Amino acid sequence: MGSMKKSSVVLLLLLSLFLFSGHVVEVEGKWCEQPSGRFAGACFRNANCANVCSTEGFPSGICEGFSCMCRREC
Description:
Helix content: 40-55%
Radius of gyration: 25 Å
Distance between the termini: 58 Å
Strand order of the largest sheet: 1-3-2
Order of helices and strands: HEHEE
Number of strands: 3
Number of helices: 2
Shape: rod-shaped
Structural class: alpha+beta
């Protein structure tokens, strides 16, 4: 009976390792945002905002409300 209990524990540990070995958690970096200085009008499309932000030296831009916010990882 003792050997069966040990085998069950070992099997459970191996199964746990197998199940969780492929589980990867990605941690997203913190974004620093700044209102675009060149975007004119109301912001409706993220792509337009991102294009203007790229001319200001930012890798990304998104519409928040009706404002264009330029973003980069901090």
